[in-house]
């Protein structure tokens, strides 16, 4: 009796496994040969014709050769905003009302993976349409933090691979070929070996990988600006003094948060000296876009190293960048992530939000 019962159980399990396997194969194989090739963004959806932004020497220029200075804001990852019910054209209208001419989209690997490429493309498409309607440009940022060649990252939200990064930029560049609203591709948000905790960063290795990504992008679109970050969480550009990225039409980025520079005596002059030594010097030869900057008081929401400051940083960093024609994109137009520019979804400015809003509106 036990033998018969055991045999029946085995047969049931076998049939069940066969059914599961057959169902799985059906899902894999069903019409795979009819899956469409990737499609490109439909530019007929755009209401404004924006000039392509190009690199000319150490400047960004429009198609007539007039210099372009980006002054704008980061918004949160579109996937986060969608989940919170804040992903809308209203957000982009508000960003424009604050005086921005550019919006940075920080796309985290975890949200790209979880949302799925096709669904995420729809979010980026919407961002382009909404930004274009407000005559603002877009920076697409692969928002990871860590040292990609060894695939060690600061947090699981940033986990990616070299293959995924190559594929991301291949797919992005193909989809948005010739879309002038998409001005900049920030290849990797913040490269860092975390003080040796993620191995030892090697500039020549990093330089070569960025050149590979740029080649992939340029194979699709040469009218977009690849943006390259240095080490120390996108702060240190000194390696380019000896070994610049060997590609034309690129720009460099810096994230010069207030506690990155550590002068023995805190004065505007000493901050200027240190900023020039580590990243500002590059503005003599290349366009620079500081795609993250900002501060919060020591007792403010989300206060953490390296963003803590009493507010003196704001006027100093703006003066430094304006004197050198450096573009900038403040972090961040979201009430959750620090340093915040708004304290709620009524768009109430924080201390730094009010400051950067005033600075942007000066140039409208």
Automatic annotation (TrEMBL):
Highest taxon listed in the record's lineage: Bacteria
Domain Glycoside hydrolase family: start-end pairs: 61-333
Position of the signal peptide: 1-21
Listed EC numbers: 3.2.1.4
MF terms in GO: cellulase activity
InterPro entries in UniProt: GH, Glyco_hydro_5
A GO biological process held by the record: polysaccharide catabolic process
Name of protein: Endoglucanase
Source organism of this protein record: Paraglaciecola arctica BSs20135
């Amino acid at each position: 009796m036990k033998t018969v019962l055991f045999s029946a159980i085995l047969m049931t399990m076998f049939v069940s496994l066969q059914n599961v396997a057959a169902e799985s194969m059906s899902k894999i194989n069903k019409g795979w040969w009819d899956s469409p090739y990737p499609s490109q963004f439909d530019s007929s959806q755009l209401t404004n014709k924006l000039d392509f932004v190009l690199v000319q020497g150490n400047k960004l220029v429009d198609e007539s050769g007039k210099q372009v200075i980006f002054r704008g804001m980061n918004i949160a990852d579109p996937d986060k905003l969608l989940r919170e019910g804040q992903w809308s054209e209203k957000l982009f209208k508000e960003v424009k009302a604050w005086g921005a001419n550019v919006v940075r989209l920080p796309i985290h690997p975890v949200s790209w993976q979880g949302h799925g490429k096709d669904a995420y493309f729809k979010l980026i498409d919407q961002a382009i349409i909404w930004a274009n309607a407000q005559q603002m440009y877009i920076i697409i940022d692969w928002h990871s933090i860590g040292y990609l060649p060894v695939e060690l990252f600061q947090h699981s939200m940033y986990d990616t691979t070299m293959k995924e990064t190559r594929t991301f930029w291949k797919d992005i560049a193909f989809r948005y070929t010739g879309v002038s609203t998409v001005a900049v591709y920030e290849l990797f948000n913040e490269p860092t070996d975390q003080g040796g905790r993620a191995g030892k960063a090697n500039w020549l290795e990093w330089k070569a990988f960025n050149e590979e990504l740029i080649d992939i992008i340029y194979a699709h679109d040469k009218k977009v600006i690849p943006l390259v970050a240095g080490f120390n969480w996108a702060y240190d550009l000194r390696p380019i003094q000896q070994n610049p990225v060997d590609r034309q039409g690129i720009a460099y980025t810096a994230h010069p948060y207030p506690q990155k520079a550590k002068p023995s005596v805190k004065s505007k002059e000493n901050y200027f000296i240190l900023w020039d030594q580590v990243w500002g010097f590059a503005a003599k030869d290349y366009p620079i876009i500081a795609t993250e900057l900002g501060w919060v008081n020591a007792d403010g929401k989300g206060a953490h190293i390296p963003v803590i400051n009493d507010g003196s940083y704001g006027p100093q960093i703006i003066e430094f960048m304006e004197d050198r024609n450096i573009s900038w994109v403040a972090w961040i137009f979201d009430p959750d992530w620090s340093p915040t520019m708004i304290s709620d979804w009524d768009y109430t400015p924080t201390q730094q939000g009010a400051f950067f809003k005033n600075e942007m509106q000066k140039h409208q």
